[in-house]
Amino acid sequence: MAFKSVAVDAFTVRIYDLWKNQWLLLTSGDWETRHFNAMTVAWGSFGIMWNKPFAQVVVRPTRYTYEFMEKYPTFTLCAFSSQYRSALQLLGNKSGREGDKISESGLSPMSSTIVRAPCFAEAQLILECRKIYQDDFNYEHFLDASIAHNYPQRDYHRIYFGEILAILQSV
């Protein structure tokens, strides 16, 4: 698939639909050494922080991708058309610790344009990000008590802010 670069100030998406209904594939690691992992994410945000465009994602410490997010400085977020929904379900439900789930998904990882974390040839949208901040959710800071039901194991997410360095859309 061919891609075109999109300027950050021209980037527009239906944010709620992208996160809630379409999902995104978070990938961290190093394309060159072929050491990377991916998982679907449905919670996150885009915005401006410290005068930088950012994508914010959350990863539980129990996820295999967490190890990659901790080790490597970059990540990508990829969005796909609905025809890839089953591949995204597999990547969200199966652990990379158990085998090569990326090959099993049928998706084609490829080199990103700027960051070392790979992206995917079938993606409609690719965001290449460099981590600039991380922190852990603290249950004592939840102002809405209903949030706690998302953490029956008390495995609170780590929050990662990534500066968006490149945005690519399929043509």
Report on the architecture of this protein.
With 171 residues, the chain is an alpha+beta fold. The protein has a single domain, classed as Pnp Oxidase, Chain A (Roll). The chain contains 4 helices and 10 strands. Strands 1, 2, 3, 4, 5, 6, 9 and 10 form an 8-stranded antiparallel sheet that branches. A hairpin with a 4-residue loop joins strand 2 and strand 3. The chain is globular. Helices cover 18% and strands 39% of the residues.
Brief summary:
With 171 residues, this protein is an alpha+beta fold. The chain has helices spanning 15-22, 64-71, 85-93, 101-105, and strands at 3-5, 24-30, 35-41, 44-49, 52-59, 74-79, 109-110, 119-120, 125-136, 158-170.
Sketch the topology as an H/E string, one letter per element. EHEEEEHEHHEEEE
Structural class: alpha+beta
Ends distance: 8 Å
CATH superfamily: Electron Transport, Fmn-binding Protein, Chain A
Query: Sheet with the most strands?
Result: 8 strands, antiparallel
The CATH class assignment is Mainly Beta
Name the average pLDDT.
97
Task: Outline the fold blueprint.
Blueprint: E1 3-5, H1 15-22, E2 24-30, E3 35-41, E4 44-49, E5 52-59, H2 64-71, E6 74-79, H3 85-93, H4 101-105, E7 109-110, E8 119-120, E9 125-136, E10 158-170
Q: Can you tag this structure with a few keywords?
A:
171 residues, alpha+beta, Pnp Oxidase, Chain A, 8-stranded antiparallel beta sheet, 4 helices, 39% strand
